[in-house]
Design a protein that fits this description.
The protein is α/β, with parallel strands linked by helices. It has 14 helices and 26 strands. The protein folds into three domains: 2-129, 3-Layer(aba) Sandwich (Rossmann fold), CATH 3.40.50.2300; 140-286; 307-518, Rossmann fold (3-Layer(aba) Sandwich), CATH 3.40.50.1460.
C-alpha cells in the first residue's frame, strides 16, 4: 500500500481523496484543520515503518480566509516539510494556481504543481515522482516570464528545477520596444487590389527579429545554455523541451507592453534555425502577476473529444461608420476557396484515428449566423448536441485599427458581412466548457484575440498571427487534428503541424504565423 499525506483545512476534500484513492492502492492520511507547518512535519514523521510516498498540500483558502493568507500558510508548510525531508515528493494543488505559488514551488527540488485532484492523476504523479522508478523524463519546460521591466527564466525537468532561475531587466535595451512598434503593423503578405505577394525579404526580417529576441531574453546566455544542455542530456531530443512565453500584465486595463513581439520566432544561432522548428513554443497571457482566470486543461483527458467545425462562408464588403481597417473605412473580403478542403482534412484525420467525425455547423447567407452559433454553444449536452471539447472556426476574421478583433459571419443577403466580437465568441465558448479553440482565419491570433480568449477562461487556443494562404492554413490545421486525434499532447501536436507546413511550403512564411496560447501549467502533458 502506498501512503500519501494530505495537508488541507478541508476535511471533506480529504475524505473525497480517501474514497477515490483507496481502490488504487493509495492510503490517504489526512492532516486537517489549519495548515500548520509544525503539525505537518509531525505527521510526516509519524512512523518510519510506513514512510510516505508523497505529500499533497491544498493551496485553497479555507472558508472566510483570504487567498493571500492561504498562500502564506502553504509556503510555510512547504518550507518546513522540505527542511524535514529533502527526498519526499511534495505536490501543491490548486485548480487555478497563482503565479506567485508556481514561483514558490519552483524554488524547491522534487516539488510539483498540480491543477487536477482526480485520483488517476494523483496516482500517475506519485509514480513519476517516486525515486528509482526507472521512468524516463517526460519533458522539460522553459518558462520565460516577460514583464514590463524585466524577464525571469525558469527551466524544469518533469517539474523539478534545473539550474538557477535567470533574471534580467530591460533598462538600456530598446530592442523589444522597437520590435513591438515594428510588428504592430508588419505583415508578411502585401496586397494590391485582388493580388497579393510576400513582403520583400520576409525571411531576413523574421530571422533578424528572432536573433534580437534571443539576445534580449538571454537565450544564448551561459546559465540558460547550461540548463538546456542538462535537459537535453536527459530527454535526448530537442523537441521534448517546451518553451512558453508568459506575458505578465498589471491587470485587465494594463496589458503587457510587448504583446506584438513575435516571441515564437526565437532564433537559435548555433543551430541556425527558429526554435519553433526545433521544439514546441507557446505563450500565456497572464492578466496579473499573482492571479489567473483561465481554467486548466483536464490532465486525464486528451484532446480527442467532440469537435465542432464552424464553417463561416462569408465574403463581400463592409463600409464602416466606426473603426477603420488598415486606415480604410471599407473592408472587402474575397471568398475562401479551401473551406470544404479544410473540413474534409479534419474529418479524415479524426476518422482515421478511430474518433468521431467533427460536427459541422455551416453558417450561410440568410441563416441568422450569429444566433445559430450562439444557440449551438449554449445547447445542453445531448445525443444530438454532445458536449464540446474543441471548436474549430474556419472563415474570415479581421482586426480593426483600434485593436478589436472580429470573426466575420455571412449576413442576411449575398455580399453582406456580419461582425462578431472575439470577446463575445470567447464568452460563449467558455460557458460551453470548451478546452481548445482553433481559429483558422486571417489574423485570428492577433494579440487582442488571444487576450480575450484567455480573459474569458479558454484554456488553449491556436490561430494565426498574420494573414495566411487559406490552403496552407487548412494544411496546418489538418495536421493539428491528426496529431490530437492520435492522442498526441497539445504542445507536441502544434509543433508537428508547424514542422509539417514548413516542410511542405518551403518558400512561404506561413510556418511563422501560427500561435499556441496555453494557460494551464500542465500544458506539456
Amino acid at each position: 500500500m502506498t501512503h500519501l499525506l494530505v495537508v488541507s483545512p478541508d476535511a471533506q476534500w480529504i475524505e473525497y481523496l480517501q474514497i477515490g484513492l483507496e481502490p488504487l492502492g493509495i492510503d490517504v492520511v489526512g492532516a486537517p484543520g489549519t495548515r500548520s507547518a509544525e503539525q505537518s512535519v509531525m505527521a510526516l514523521r509519524r512512523d518510519d515503518q510506513f514512510p510516505f510516498a508523497g505529500v499533497l498540500i491544498s493551496a485553497l483558502a479555507a472558508p472566510g480566509q483570504a487567498q493571500s493568507d492561504a498562500l502564506l500558510e502553504t509556503a510555510d508548510v512547504l518550507a518546513a516539510l522540505r527542511q524535514a525531508s529533502k527526498n519526499v515528493p511534495i505536490f501543491l494543488w490548486s485548480p487555478y494556481p497563482a503565479e506567485r505559488l508556481a514561483s514558490i514551488a519552483s524554488r524547491f527540488a522534487n516539488t510539483l504543481m498540480l491543477t487536477s485532484d482526480e485520483p488517476e492523476v494523483l496516482k500517475a504523479s506519485l509514480a513519476v515522482a517516486a525515486p528509482d522508478t526507472g521512468i524516463a523524463p517526460l519533458a522539460a519546460k522553459v518558462e520565460l516570464q516577460i514583464g514590463a521591466g524585466n524577464i525571469r527564466i525558469e527551466v524544469a525537468l518533469d517539474g523539478k528545477p534545473v539550474g538557477t532561475p535567470v533574471s534580467r531587466d530591460w533598462s538600456g535595451r530598446p530592442k523589444l520596444k522597437q520590435l513591438e512598434e515594428k510588428f504592430a503593423k508588419w505583415t508578411p503578405l502585401q496586397r494590391d487590389g485582388s493580388s497579393a505577394r510576400y513582403t520583400d525579404n520576409w525571411l531576413d526580417v523574421l530571422r533578424e527579429a528572432g536573433e534580437d529576441i534571443s539576445f534580449e531574453t538571454d537565450y544564448t546566455g551561459e546559465a540558460l545554455s547550461r540548463a538546456l544542455s542538462d535537459c537535453l542530456e536527459k530527454v535526448k531530443t530537442y523537441d521534448l523541451i517546451h518553451f512558453r512565453f508568459n506575458l505578465l500584465s498589471a491587470g485587465l486595463d494594463a496589458p503587457n507592453p510587448f504583446v506584438h513581439v513575435p516571441f515564437e520566432l526565437l532564433y537559435d544561432t548555433k543551430r541556425k534555425n527558429f526554435v519553433c522548428a526545433l521544439a514546441p513554443v507557446a505563450r500565456r497571457v497572464c492578466l496579473s502577476w499573482d492571479s489567473r482566470i483561465a481554467t486548466a486543461l483536464p490532465n486525464t483527458k486528451p484532446l480527442t473529444g467532440h469537435t465542432l467545425f464552424v464553417k463561416s462562408d462569408a465574403h463581400g464588403s463592409y463600409e464602416s461608420a466606426g473603426p477603420s481597417f488598415r486606415g480604410k473605412r471599407k473592408l472587402s473580403l474575397k471568398p475562401l476557396e479551401a473551406l470544404d478542403y479544410e473540413f474534409d482534412a479534419v474529418e479524415k484525420s479524426r476518422i482515421d484515428a478511430g474518433r468521431a467525425p467533427p460536427e459541422l455547423l455551416a453558417l450561410t447567407v440568410g441563416g441568422s449566423a450569429s444566433t445559430l452559433l450562439q444557440h449551438r454553444l449554449a445547447a445542453a449536452p445531448s445525443a444530438a448536441a454532445p458536449a464540446l471539447q474543441i471548436i474549430h472556426y474556419a472563415g474570415h476574421s479581421t482586426q480593426a485599427d483600434d485593436g478589436t478583433t472580429y470573426l466575420i459571419l455571412p449576413g442576411t443577403v449575398e455580399g453582406e458581412l456580419m461582425f462578431l466580437r472575439m470577446s463575445e465568441f470567447a464568452g460563449w465558448g467558455r460557458k460551453a466548457g470548451v478546452q481548445l479553440v482553433i481559429l483558422s482565419s486571417c489574423e485570428s491570433s492577433a494579440p487582442e484575440a488571444v487576450f480575450r480568449l484567455s480573459q474569458a477562461g479558454i484554456p488553449a487556443a491556436i490561430g494565426f498571427r498574420w494573414e495566411v494562404n487559406d490552403t496552407e492554413a487548412a494544411f496546418f490545421t489538418g495536421h493539428v487534428h491528426k496529431a490530437l486525434a492520435g492522442g498526441v499532447p497539445l504542445a507536441r501536436a502544434f509543433h508537428i503541424a508547424v514542422s509539417a507546413v514548413r516542410a511542405e511550403y518551403e518558400g512561404s512564411p506561413t510556418f511563422a504565423s501560427p500561435m499556441l496560447a496555453v494557460q494551464d501549467d500542465e500544458w506539456t502533458i
